Structures are given as C-alpha cells and as structure tokens.
Amino acid sequence: MKVLLKLLVLPLVALSLATGCNDKGKQKPEANRPRPARAPSVVVVPDQVKGKWKAVQIRVADKNAHLKKVYTLNIGSDFKLPGSDLTLKVETFLPHFVMEGTTLTSQSNDLVNPAAQLVIRENGKEIYKGWLFSLYPTAHAYQHPQYGFTLVDYMPAS
C-alpha cells in the first residue's frame, strides 16, 4: 500500500513543482502592457513676460582645462561656444518658472524661479534640449563629457 501511495503521490508532487518552476520567469500580464504615452510639455510665455528679457548669462565650465567662463546669450539667437563644436541657443527664459500639468510657464515677471530653456547642438546635431535653473543648478543638469552649464544671470530688455 505504501508503495502504491508513493507511486501516485510522487508524480503529482513532481508535476506541481515543474509547473511552479515554469511560472518563475514569467512576468505578470500588467508588465507587458504598453504604458500610455506621456503628453508632451508645452511652453507658454505669458504676455507679462514676452519681450521683457533680452539675454541670459551662462557659466560654461570646461572640465578638461579646469576653466570657467561666463557668456551672454541673446534669447532666440545661436551662440558658437569658442574652441568647440558646440552651438548654444536659449529658446525661452521664464523668470518665475512653474509647471502646471504639462504646461511650463511663468507665474509672473518677477525673478522667483528663473529658468532658461537651452538647446545644445554639436556639429549641427541637437544633443540636448532642457532647462537650466539658477536656484537649482544641479536639477536636470546636462552631463556633457567636457562642459558644464549653469544659468547665472539675466538681462532685461531696455
């Protein structure tokens, strides 16, 4: 009787163990579902800010030469970084940067949270588009192998 019981129970135990092993590598069905696409951010420059700022100053740190230099970049204009293949462009300056859902805007024209949207191109190819924050210089900082960029000052339009 014990032998008969072993012959019946052992295959059932082996089958349940084998089935359990097959589930270990499987992901839950939720993990395979595509995630919904995130809505792109929209930059809105309010009328109270439009045309009120002409330039920003960005400190560029050359990590290889251990040098830092401040450059004035006119908003909306290309700036060729001397001695490099980089072109910088400040697309937008928001003196009181806020994020409202997917909208990036300025709550006022006061320098509460200054931010500049910077585009960096290398040999004409865009390698970075993001924001520099003067109060939070390391937030979302672009990691270039040779250069570091920091927003340091802002120039109002005359």
UniProtKB/TrEMBL annotation:
Signal peptide start and end residues: 1-18
Domain of life the protein comes from: Bacteria
Keyword Signal appears in the UniProt entry: yes
Keywords assigned by UniProt, alphabetized: Signal
Protein name as catalogued: DUF2155 domain-containing protein
Classification lineage: Bacteria, Pseudomonadati, Thermodesulfobacteriota, Desulfuromonadia, Geobacterales
